[in-house]
Amino acid sequence: MKSVIYPLRQLKRISNFDYPLDEIGIMVEHSPHVINKVLTRYFFTFSFSKEKYPSTASDLRPSFSLLPPGTVLNSDGTRAHDELFFSYSTALTEKIRHLFPGIGNQKYTVFFSYDDEFNRKFMLLKELIAERNTVGVADKLDVLAIEIVMTAYVNSLQSNASSDSISSEAKIQEIALKLKNGEKLEPLLRQYGYSRRAFYYEWGEMFSVSPKRIQLEAKLEQAHKLLLTTDLTIAEIAERCKFSSHRYFHECFLKYFNSTPGDYRKRFKSR
């Protein structure tokens, strides 16, 4: 199956459903290479990992995200995944905020269960997409998309409301993964209900390095891949990987790989 984005905005509707879709995207082995791309619409995405992360603290469960307008995307294209997304116009801002209270303008990402019910709805979605130009089908797609999104969202709220349903080990693993993906620690502590003291105690039970070190190593691994797979300058890679300065990137890379970024590229990049 190929990756396809289906534009739906111009299709005729026969109902006044509050959440008309702009697009549906079904992306196969998706590995975008984007730099500071700013979203101008709402996106609801379902992501399915296609490769293992190097850390034993990884979690390969599918994830569900709400990405509001203004979200900045950066991806080096090294992590392939399958993705389903629904996009909506900013004209629906008030309605979307009413439907998802508490999220505001921040990116919201949680894990969700890919079960038989989700698969059934996804199969139905593909059937309806094939008939999207038939009168009334666009309305069915609008309703089904919101049903799929709300199921994932409600399940995430139920999981967060029941702290006993997620083990401490699983929580710490999820936080570690999100830190590696660039999220900040303080919002994660609030999301998972940790005080700093309790968090660092449980973190220390599982990891011998600090959260800051986990983030640094993830950035260095990303930089290492960019050095070997792109022609970006060293300064551009430092900026892409969110190092505070070119000099700091140089120092960290030297300590971690026992080589400067420039020398490392000369030695190992394929010509």
Radius of gyration: 21 Å
What's the SSE pattern?
A: EEEEEEEHEHHHHHHHHH
What form results from the Cα inertia axes?
A: globular
Total beta-strand segments: 8
So how many helices? 10
SSE-based structural type? alpha+beta
Distance between the termini: 32 Å
Mean pLDDT: 83
Can you list the strand order of the major beta sheet?
1-2-7-4-5-8
Fraction in beta strands: 15-25%
The biggest sheet amounts to:
6 strands, antiparallel
Indicate the low-confidence ranges by residue numbers. Answer: 52-58
- How many structural units, i.e. domains? 3
DSSP helix fraction: 40-55%
Please explain how this structure is put together:
- By secondary structure, this protein is α+β, with helices and mostly antiparallel strands.
- It has three domains: 4-161; 168-206; 211-268, Homeodomain-like (Arc Repressor Mutant, subunit A, Orthogonal Bundle), CATH 1.10.10.60.
- It has ten helices and eight strands.
- The strands form two sheets. It has a six-stranded antiparallel sheet, covered by helices on one side. A two-stranded antiparallel ribbon has the order 3-6.
- Helix 2 (116-130) runs antiparallel to helix 3 and helix 4 packs antiparallel against helix 5 (185-192).
- The radius of gyration is 21 Å and the shape is globular.
- Mean pLDDT is 83; it is low at 52-58.
